[in-house]
Amino acid sequence: MSLEALAAAQQFGAELHLPVFAAVLGHGVEPVAQALANYDIQKIHAIDHELLAAYTPDGYTIALKQLIESHRAGYVVFPHTYQVRDFAPKLATALDRVLIGDVIGHRVDDGALVLVRQLFQGKINADLRFEGEPPYFASIQAGAFRADSLRSGTAKVETITPDLKAEQIRTKPLELFRESQRAVNLGAAEIIVSVGRGIKEAANIPIVQKLADALGAELAGSRPVCDTGWLPMERQVGSSGQTVAPKLYLAVGISGAIQHLVGMKGSKTIVAINKDPEAPIFEVADYGIVGDLFEVVPALIEALNEG
Amino acid sequence: MKIVVAIKQVPSRDSQLRIGGAAATWIEEGDLAYEINEPDAYALESGLQLKEKLTGEVVVLCAGPERASQTIREALAKGADRAIHIETDQPGSSDPLALARMMAKALASEKPDLILTGLQSDDLGYGQTGVILAEVMGLPHASIVMNVEAAGSGIKVKRELEDGWFQHVKMPLPALLTIQSGATKLRYATLMGIKKAKTKEVRRVPAAELAAPAQPSITLDRIYMPEKTKQSQIFDGTAKEAAAKLVDKLRFEARVL
Known about the structure:
The complex is a heterodimer of chains A (307) and B (257). In chain A, helix 3 packs across helix 4 and helix 5 packs parallel to helix 9 (293-306). Chain A has helices spanning 2-16, 30-34, 57-71, 82-94, 205-215, 223-227, 258-261, 281-284, 293-306; strands spanning 21-26, 43-48, 75-79, 99-109, 112-119, 124-130, 136-140, 156-160, 172-178, 191-195, 218-221, 248-252, 269-274, 287-290.
């Protein structure tokens, strides 16, 4: 996703006639920075400090603020990851600015960048603009720009040591952990039947399980379905679960919030079954049925068995 | 422990939204039903559970028009002790930094130990107001929090990361946390709670008293229905007819069966 953000920056830079710089944060980041050396970038700033070894919002904000101020950056572009969501609004606030997050598109209008993001869980799009003086902050949603569109070139790495003290970092990150063993590898499934809030209650899960069985598919679910325990967490598709790209993905009773779409929109063929014709899932669907899943799913099982 | 829970009233999840007016900068609000923003309901639940464990007070903070009173009453009925209502007609029109500054000012006399809010709103979905409020108030924060527990003089929280990973983070108080949905079960208001809520204090603060109009850092130009990225084929008819057509297409057009 960082490469996609870099692709976005190259595109903004080309259209706004601005040079593009990259910044990499952490401790011992030289190899990561060098990995960008073959792209068309003016310079790569490797911001290196032992206090940046583990991510903290204070550490990242202080270090990046120093770079942005000394560099007088015009636009600061991030990938829209959970980590960026955690510190980028703080960084923008520290510079008296507001981040435009979760960007899915852009255009340049009269020399100004107009960014597109979704409202109401993907039901509505909005065009936003920056006001006042730069720096302007934006974070880019997964899949909005293509990493394979990156222009190549040569870039030099410059290592910077930010002015950072241990007492400035107020939170103490502990170990990373996972709760469930990944017994189910949804990524390997050829067909996935995925179920959302529309299924209403746990007692209805067998209805979609039967559909999955008829198709020889794995059963998966959206976040609310896994949160409530109707399906185990390891069957969750979306930004906090697994990312899948099967040849056939059937979304049953899933409205299609962006957090879900990023986890499945790479699927070859997408089928949506939903009672709401305006549900965002229909925007990515190849085939759709607007209707009550409790009628459509049994009919579908019957049609499959007839063939 | 004094806990402030910042909540927002949003159109209910199953609303059919229409773009309003010629300017097309907001939705048609007339016939919409409203409810508490779902992640904020989980923030409130976390706050109430912490109060039960550690004793103290839960204060609800809500910026919104008159109709938000209903959502505030519901939070009081669930067990919040009192509320602060920042009266503003269009919380959508100000940027999240301006809103956070108003909230910080409204909280100036409160000195909470902990501020909780949902990780994002179901309407604008910026997912930033909590983090911004922490920075405005000079507090440490953690976002996308699943669980909170006391740890010495501070707290230990469980943060959700991507791809099934989690992380514990220790932090001092006062602090601000943005709460993830679904980590706990939501309570219902009891009859007694609903009755009690009617007498609980709601401090109303007009937005104009908190902030002079300032130039926003970002503006919402216009809103519109998304264009379809794919040309989808929608099958009509009875469930049986639509299902038969779909299976036919999957077999002979997409050839995925």
